[in-house]
User: Which sequence fits this backbone?
């Protein structure tokens, strides 16, 4: 993405200046490998990033190298030098957000990060500025394009997970090591940032409950459709009576919900609040060009700040606060059970749910013979009750297998 940004800074220089009144000049670019061909003059290059942040001719710093270090120390050095910083690094912000934002505030400069969540979708500014007065109740979205591409291929083409992943890798939508995407880590870092902005309380990436898509069985995508759901990797940040709950996991969502129709590598985020109702932000969540657009917007703000000699963007502040105990967070559940096909089996299963105070919303049976497939959807139940009910089901002789369980995320009533 840094390559797209550098090229745009050089080729769109006039357009940017005419539209914004700001002249941005690319002074220096740090890379790891000086010998790689680049879409800009080699005299701009250095392999010593600390020289960029310390250079007195550099007024604004963009960090798009990724990773925790040396990115973290470079951002701190730039802020210490009172240079506004633009970053796209969600991993760094999720790990060290409060420290970095505090340093920026101490030094009176901005740390801007529009590209860190949702790539080219303007999302951070609306959340932190336009919606500053809204007591946001829930942020719900698809924030990882790689996993959405894989789940779309599984749902629409009936491909198993491994095959859909290989296709995503071949087309450049997934890295050779896809673990940060398919394991939910990337989405969890983004969820932490969104929750921080939505609730004004720092959650931190390590406090986001996380499940990835590696064990999603293509069979459940087909069953989901029959029950009127789509299966998506969702990031959910919501206010609960026990505090903010932030989680990333595959979830069933009603097929008529707009998130169910988000295909391929796109991202989409719903923001809900009592004043605004529901807002939907949707578009390309990654890719060099869309992300460079988001970084350029931040850079123009950073330049305005530099020229004004005062911080123009609102300060990002986060209060302290606990997150909800995940065991108490309530959701509906989908379960797929392989059971003995005999009279009285359903009664035994219903009794287990009753004992664990989980009530059933719908039951659907497929297959006749020795075994049958049961698809169950429950009403809202705390995580803990659901987990205990599943353990008890596993010990029933008539239940051959609890083949899958997924949370069901429904629209706000
Ligand atoms: N790509 C996207 O669509 C996208 C979207 C949103 C956010 N982001 C975020 O943007 C950041 C970069 O992602 P990317 O996909 O653009 O990564 P990338 O393609 O790997 O590019 C990273 C760039 O930083 C340089 N670099 C890395 N470590 C360095 C070091 N220690 N010293 C000097 N230069 C170094 C690399 O140099 P070489 O070229 O020599 O290797 C490369 O040019 C990440 O934080 C990512 O999460 C990316």
Assistant:
């Amino acid at each position: 993405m840094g390559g797209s940004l550098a090229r745009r800074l050089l080729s769109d220089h006039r357009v940017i200046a005419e539209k914004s009144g700001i002249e941005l000049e690319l002074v220096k670019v740090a890379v790891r490998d000086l010998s790689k061909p680049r879409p800009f003059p080699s005299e701009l290059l250095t392999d010593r990033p600390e020289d960029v942040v310390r250079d007195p001719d550099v007024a604004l710093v963009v960090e798009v190298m990724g990773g925790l270090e040396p990115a973290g120390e470079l951002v701190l050095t730039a802020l210490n030098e009172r240079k506004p910083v633009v970053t796209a690094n969600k991993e760094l912000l999720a790990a060290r957000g409060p420290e970095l934002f505090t340093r920026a505030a101490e030094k009176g400069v901005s740390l801007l990060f529009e590209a860190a969540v949702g790539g080219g979708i303007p999302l951070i500014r609306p959340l932190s500025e336009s919606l500053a007065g809204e007591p946001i109740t829930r942020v719900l979205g698809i924030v990882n394009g790689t996993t959405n591409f894989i789940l779309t291929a599984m749902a629409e083409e009936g491909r198993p997970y491994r095959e859909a992943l290989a296709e995503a890798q071949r087309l450049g939508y997934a890295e050779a090591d896809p673990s940060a995407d398919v394991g939910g880590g990337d989405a969890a870092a983004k969820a932490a940032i969104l929750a921080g902005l939505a609730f004004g309380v720092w959650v931190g990436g390590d406090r986001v409950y996380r499940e990835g898509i590696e064990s999603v069985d293509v069979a459940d995508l087909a069953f989901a459709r029959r029950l009127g759901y789509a299966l998506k990797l969702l990031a959910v940040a919501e206010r609960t009576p026990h505090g903010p709950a932030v989680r990333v996991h595959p979830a069933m969502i009603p097929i008529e919900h707009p998130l169910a129709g988000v295909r391929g590598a796109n991202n989409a985020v719903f923001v809900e609040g009592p004043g605004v109702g529901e807002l939907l932000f949707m578009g390309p969540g990654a890719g060099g060009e869309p992300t460079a657009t988001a970084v350029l917007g931040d850079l123009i703000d950073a330049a305005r700040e530099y020229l004004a000699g005062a911080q123009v963007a609102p300060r990002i502040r986060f209060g302290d606060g606990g997150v909800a105990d995940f065991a108490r967070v309530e959701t509906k559940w989908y379960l797929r059970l392989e059971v003995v096909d005999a009279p009285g089996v359903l009664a035994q299963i219903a009794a287990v749910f009753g004992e664990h105070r989980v009530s059933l919303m719908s039951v659907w049976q497929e297959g006749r013979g020795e075994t049958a497939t049961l698809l169950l959807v429950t009403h809202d139940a705390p995580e803990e009750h659901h987990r205990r009910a599943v353990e008890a089901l596993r010990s029933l002789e008539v239940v051959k297998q609890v083949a899958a369980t997924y949370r069901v995320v429904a629209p706000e009533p």
Q: What stands out?
A: Residues 1-2, 30-33, 36, 49, 64-66, 70, 88-90, 115, 119, 286-288, 291 surround NAP (CB under 6 Å). The chain has 14 helices and 16 strands. The domain at 326-408 is CATH 3.30.70.260 (Alpha-Beta Plaits).
